[in-house]
Design a protein that fits this description.
The chain is 40% helix and 15% strand. With 508 residues, it is of the alpha/beta class. The protein has 3 domains: 254 residues, HUPs (Rossmann fold, 3-Layer(aba) Sandwich); 141 residues, no CATH class; 77 residues, no CATH class. The strands form 5 sheets. A 4-stranded parallel β-sheet has the order 4-3-9-10, sandwiched between helices. It has a 4-stranded antiparallel β-sheet with strand order 5-6-7-8. Helix 6 packs across helix 7, helix 11 runs antiparallel to helix 12 and helix 14 packs antiparallel against helix 15. The longest helix has 22 residues. It is globular. The chain starts with a strand and ends with a helix.
Length: 508
């Protein structure tokens, strides 16, 4: 069987992945708190672990992988949003959950096997908290129940920091009822205006950390004996290492000291935009929905994200988006009508099995798409096709979630050449043709690429103040039967009835 190597945050090294039960590989990834749209950074763990999910399904079989990603639908942020808007909490969480599902589907992410909502597991959370209290790992104080960090000697093992360092580097809530500043809330009281459930400690609601511990146990470990209360992989963004994942480990291992909880911990690095941290104050903050609404195809977003290894910071840039769109258009043309190969090229699969090396995997796809590429290093046999290996391209791309049927329609939408949120928050110029699906042949694509090349040059001239040359390009294209429509929100172009490709060729 194919061997997979994964970097384990807990041990700080790559390890050969050996599932507890190859017939049921189990993975839990922390999902969103559903109070607002998912921003671009929220999409990165979804896509990283979607690739891992696809790889595990390929290696162990689609019926032998259980992937759980939760929805946190009880949280102070949700309560605050309800107070701000005057809407019911249920309305907010329901709508936001659907937004999230729609946006992630647009990025080509498969739905996990299970998508539990925290509010459906309150009894399990109450039971786990009661167990921790009984074992001396938690205590009640002023309507709260808190985990006693001092009771767990291994606290800090995941993040590699001492308790003293964690206090210095974290925003620790100072409360008189805490025995230790690092003690964290398992249960908190609710007033009449807040959601709440009955418990031995009064009406209240769970803390954030206990939610994932309880859901993971109920879905992935419920029927296991005490000594085997473990599952294979726990994932999330590296911002969750501390305190969230550190606290999950403390709760779960104190509740079930004979088990391991999660055997492999995986964390993706964060995202920035044009070399800067994404933030509202910088004006470079945008959601997945923003990009989709601007016409950036979900498959393109996916490509840009996966072009960087998950353990390295990912920089979203306009140039990367343009290159990704051009690449995917080329690949879709090459594989149009081609049946995918039955099995992926081993070298491609091995790259993914080496700690999800998606950049290397994508380099294999480029080789499959380029018959003139030097494929020796990739051990790809290109000799069977003058067009490289389009069957392998389609087969392997689909393991990464590209060139799938669910994402195929975007190629016929208006193509976006430059549309992004700038530092000032204003969208740059977009360049889009007016197309209908099925309208173009391969020759048409070549012509369109030539037109877009002129339009990109014109856009650059306008940005640099070379307005005379920009106007000249507009007139030349007009003479060939290309109409340009400038507007505040972007730019579109279309071929008029008298379009003459020969005149366009003469402009080159």
């Amino acid at each position: 069987m194919t061997q997979i190597t994964l970097y384990n945050t807990m041990t700080r090294k790559k390890e050969l992945f050996a599932p507890l039960d190859p017939a049921n590989v189990r993975m839990y990834v922390c999902g969103p708190t559903v109070y607002d749209r998912a921003h671009l950074g929220n999409a990165r763990p979804v896509l990283v672990f979607d690739v891992l999910f696809r790889l595990l399904r390929h290696v162990y079989g689609p019926d032998h992988v259980t992937y759980v990603r939760n929805f946190t639908d009880v949280d102070d942020k949700i309560i605050a949003r309800a107070a701000e808007t005057g809407r019911e909490i249920g309305q907010i969480t329901s709508q936001t959950t659907q937004w999230y599902l729609d946006d992630m589907a647009a990025l080509g992410a498969l739905e996990p096997t299970e998508m539990p909502h925290a509010t459906a597991f309150i009894p399990q959370m109450v039971a786990m908290i009661g167990d921790l209290v009984a074992k001396g790992h938690a205590y009640a104080a002023e309507g709260h129940v808190l985990f006693a960090v001092d009771s767990y000697a291994e606290y800090g093992a995941l993040s590699g920091r001492s308790t003293k360092d964690m206090i210095a580097g974290a925003r620790v809530e100072v409360a008189p009822y805490k025995k230790n500043p690092m003690d964290f809330v398992l249960w908190k009281p609710s007033n009449d205006d807040q959601p709440g459930w009955d418990s031995p400690w009064g009406r209240g609601r769970p803390g954030w950390h206990i939610e994932c511990s309880a859901m993971a146990e109920e879905i992935l470990m419920k029927d296991l004996p005490e000594a085997k209360k473990s599952f294979d992989i726990h994932g999330g963004g590296n911002d969750l290492q501390f305190p969230h994942h550190e606290n999950e480990i403390a709760q779960s291992k104190c509740a079930h000291p004979e088990g391991e909880f999660a055997r492999v911990w995986m964390h993706n690095e964060m995202l920035q935009v044009e070399g800067r941290k994404m933030s509202k104050s910088l004006g470079n903050f945008f959601t997945v929905h923003d990009l989709l609404e601007q016409g950036v195809p979900g498959e393109v977003i996916r490509f840009v994200m996966l072009s960087t290894h998950y353990r390295k910071p990912m920089d979203w840039t306009e140039r990367k988006r343009e290159e990704a769109e051009a690449t995917l258009r080329k690949w879709r043309r090459l594989t149009d009508g081609v049946e995918p190969a039955d099995e992926p090229e081993p070298a491609f699969l091995n790259s993914l099995c080496e700690d999800l090396n998606t950049p290397l995997a994508i380099s294999h796809l480029h080789a499959f798409a380029n018959p003139t590429a030097d494929s020796t290093a990739l051990t790809v046999d290109m000799s069977t096709s003058i067009n490289g290996s389009p069957a392998q391209l389609k087969c392997c791309a689909r393991i990464l979630g590209f060139l799938t049927e669910s994402l195929e329609d975007w190629e016929w939408r208006p193509r976006v050449i430059s549309r992004t949120v700038s530092i000032k928050g204003k969208a740059d110029v977009s360049i889009s043709p007016v197309l209908e699906k099925g309208q173009q042949s391969s020759d048409d694509h070549t012509v369109d690429d030539e037109i877009l090349s002129f339009l990109q040059e014109r856009d650059e001239c306008r940005k640099r103040g070379k307005y005379q040359r920009a106007d000249e390009i507009r007139e030349l294209l007009s003479g060939a039967g290309i109409q340009i429509n400038d507007a505040e929100g972007g730019l579109t172009w279309e071929k008029l009835p008298h379009f003459d490709p020969a005149k366009l060729e003469a402009l080159k």
